[in-house]
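Input for the complex:
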Amino acid sequence: MDEPIIEMCHVFKTYPSQISALSDVSLEISPGEFTFIVGPSGSGKSTLLRILFSAEKPTSGEVVVHGMHITQPGFKKIYQLRRKMGIVSQDFKLLRDRTVNANVAFALEITGHARKEAKNRASEVLRRVGLEDREGDSILSLSAGEKQRVAIARAVVHSPPLLIADEPTGNLDAKMILDVMEIFTDLHQKGTTIVFSTQFTGLVKHYPYRVIQILNGQISDGRRVDIHQEKEVKAGE
Amino acid sequence: MFFLQYVMRRAFQNMKGNLFPNLITIGIIVISMLIFSTFSLLAFNLTNFLKIWEDKIEILAYLKQGTPSSEVEPLLRKTRLLEGVEVVRYVSPFDAMTFMETKLGGQKNLLGGIQPTVLPPSFEIQLKKDYRNSTKIKEVVSQLKKIPQFEEIQYGQEWVETFSVLVHILRLTQWILGGLLLIAIVFITSNTLQLTISSRREEIEVMHWVGASPSFIRVPFYVEGLIQGLLGGVLAILFLFLLHQGFLLYIPPSMQAWLARIPVLFLPPETIVWILLGGMVLGFFGSIVASMRVLKYK
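Predicted:
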């Protein structure tokens, strides 16, 4: 069995205001796995994900991502960790003064790729997310769903083995959610490990992936939803 | 090469994007550096003047009236052996009278009736180069004072001391003022760069997310600080040069004769280089302060 790509061991996170965001969270995620983190607003989903990409440090506990002990004191290679992952958020975090292609290419340029190469790779990925016709357009002219697709394209343009998505469907309507989920499913099928947080339990029921429930900073794990099995059961009934 | 290109492009983009705050910063650096360099220039010229004056400095040791002429030669030998003494010339009362007549020119008849013997004989003592300063002169004078045949020793000590004190005060003011201005420059550069960083907050956040190395994010801001400091320094030197040239062109007639023998120099190249380097270092330091405050990897 492969080494887990993510390991969290007895992780606690308490904010200075004494609000406990995570309480004794332990979990492992294997390479290639698609994991939903599901819970209501304020349950600790974002804190968990922010710890995974080292935007926050846990109060105690150990976290290993890609074999890097990111909770060890003095861990300074955050940028190396992030080069091995893609991050997508609900608010897209796109640069409004640049075109669609420039936003995606930016992720490659600032990690040392030549401009032309970055531009070509960005075009390739934009084609994969169905935005080949909008490459030269300004970000401001895009719909929310299109913006999220650009954000996903930027997150995966460097082909990371791990994609962390913090409520990527939060601002989207039903049609857009389906479009975006199709891209995530496609990436997963190509081998990308995906950690996907959402507060909509209805969404996860449609996908045969692992679901981790989080409530008041505590997780309950282990349920694997297999949509095909569920369908078979329903048909048998 | 790519990194360098990126850094330069980004630094200039940052400056262009925040043109007004950058111009204000450069303007304040120019004013601060101009004040500092003006004091440097004044101190440099006064030091130079002091050096010229010190080079010409000599000690006059007056012999006691009635010193037998047989003692003059041994006394000359003894004086020549003193540390720091280069040349000693005996000035007899007759030589002194001739000198005074020459100085008075057409009015030398004022000396009519005065016997040369009323003038005391003296030694004109020229010092070695290293001894032509107020501290070293005093060492030689104290040795001369131990010789009983000398009645009085003169070397224009008041002039040398007053002038030295003036130069010291000027240097001290220059460095105190300089110190305050340096803090101001660091503070201002740091604040402008914080504005620049703040205006690029979204971009920096994205850079953090996609794994840009800290140097990739910070170095353009360091370069921006360096450029601000360098431009400020260059403009300050340029303005100072124009002021210097203007002063030379419009010297009041009352000062022209006085300044004829004293060159009013501009700062030497090495001082200019130091001022420019100083500006760059200050700009750089300001950008480090700014990045430490607001460029934490998140």
